[in-house]
UniProtKB/TrEMBL annotation:
Any one GO biological process: ATP biosynthetic process
All copies of domain Nudix hydrolase, residue ranges: 1-141
Superkingdom, taxonomy of origin: Eukaryota
EC supergroup of this enzyme: hydrolase
Swiss-Prot/TrEMBL keywords: Hydrolase, Nucleotide-binding
Protein name: Bis(5'-nucleosyl)-tetraphosphatase [asymmetrical]
Keyword Nucleotide-binding: yes
Keyword match Ribonucleoprotein: no
UniProt GO molecular function: bis(5'-nucleosyl)-tetraphosphatase (asymmetrical) activity; nucleotide binding
SUPFAM superfamilies: Nudix (SSF55811)
Enzyme Commission number(s) from the entry: 3.6.1.17
Organism this protein belongs to: Ploceus nigricollis
């Protein structure tokens, strides 16, 4: 059976400069793992018994980034499943999209991560080494731009 994990793509909007587009003020939260290859990823983790996928996404976000569900706004209409092998076994990760209510809220990392960054789309794609993660970030950005 495939390993199942869930998480949130979290973004914040900074005050845009008068000359810039609103979408230029969007930054995405990526966490750097403190294990393995130290890859960068949105907060995510395995589904616990009795939990539904969205509960998992919020619990993992709280554990890994110190963010409560009340500090986030879940964005309707975006959900993405990524499928890839990990140690030769299939893995499914389901992501939702959430906006920070206060862009200055402090991020508190767990021991699973050693660093975090708020990144504009181009930099977020450079940090996220995996093609499917880069594609998802671009898709999220397009989704947000289409809602402006």
């Amino acid at each position: 059976m495939a390993v199942r994990a869930c998480g949130l793509v979290i973004y914040r909007r900074l005050q845009p400069a008068p000359s810039s587009k609103v979408t230029d003020s969007i930054e995405y939260l990526l966490l750097q793992t403190s294990y393995g290859t130290h890859h960068w990823t949105p907060p995510k983790g395995h589904v616990d018994p009795g939990e539904d996928d969205l509960q998992t996404a919020f619990r993992e976000t709280q554990e890994e980034a110190g963010l409560q569900a009340s500090q986030l706004t879940l964005i309707e209409g975006y959900k993405k499943e990524l499928h890839y092998p990990v140690h030769g076994k299939p893995k499914t990760v389901v992501y939702w999209l959430a906006e920070m209510k206060d862009c200055n809220t402090e991020i508190k990392l767990s021991e699973e991560h050693q660093a975090f960054q708020w990144l504009k789309l181009e930099d977020a794609c450079k940090f996220a080494e995996y093609e499917d993660m880069q594609a998802m970030l671009k898709e999220v950005h397009q989704f947000l731009c289409s809602r402006e």
